[in-house]
Each structure stands twice: as structure tokens, then as C-alpha cells.
Design brief:
30% strand; 1 helix; mainly beta; 10% helix; four-stranded antiparallel β-sheet
Length: 97
């Protein structure tokens, strides 16, 4: 869907959570009038959110300003401390320990 042949993947493991982020500079996707959530037919993003929720996680997916797309997921690690703050709607996930 991205119409690109390159993407960037970031994986961060912290004491309380595992975070994953995939970004690209492709032309795929279309922003809503609010400019955040993607409006497409199908169940791809909904399915990712549902699968992440099964493990207590969350997924955010949205077009980037101008061009590109970002999918970010956060999974709390049970029994290792507080789950931390939820993902912000925009911007990168803070992966600093």
C-alpha cells in the first residue's frame, strides 16, 4: 500500500514495554479531514489494533505530514513494572530508557 521500496523499522525493549515503529516515505494512504487516522476500506489497521489489544498493547497508524506513513505499536511487559504512558497520536515513540 505504501508505493515505496524502503521503510525504517525501530524496535525498542525497555523494562516495562516493547515498542515497534515502521515508517516510510511512500505515497500510499490518505489522511482524513482531521489529518490523523487513515481512511481506507478493509481491516488491516483495525486487525493490527485488535491483535495488539489481545496482548494488552496498542497500535497507532497515520499518514506523516506531507508524505509517508507511520505505524507504531506498544506492548506492556507484564510483571516487570508500570505499563507507562499510552502512545501519542503524533510523533515518534520515546525509546529512551
Amino acid at each position: 500500500h505504501a508505493a515505496t521500496d524502503e521503510c525504517w523499522v525501530t524496535v525498542a525493549y525497555r523494562e516495562d514495554a516493547l515498542t515497534l515503529e515502521v515508517t516510510d516515505q511512500g505515497s500510499g494512504g490518505a489522511a482524513s479531514s482531521a489529518g490523523s487516522e487513515l481512511l481506507v476500506a478493509g481491516n488491516g489497521i483495525i486487525g493490527m489494533r485488535e491483535r495488539a489489544a489481545m496482548y494488552g498493547g496498542e497500535v497507532r497508524a497515520a499518514p506523516l505530514p506531507g508524505r509517508g506513513f507511520r505505524v507504531a505499536a506498544r506492548f506492556p511487559l507484564a510483571g516487570t513494572g508500570p505499563a507507562g504512558a499510552p502512545l501519542a497520536d503524533n510523533g515518534p515513540i520515546d525509546t529512551r530508557a
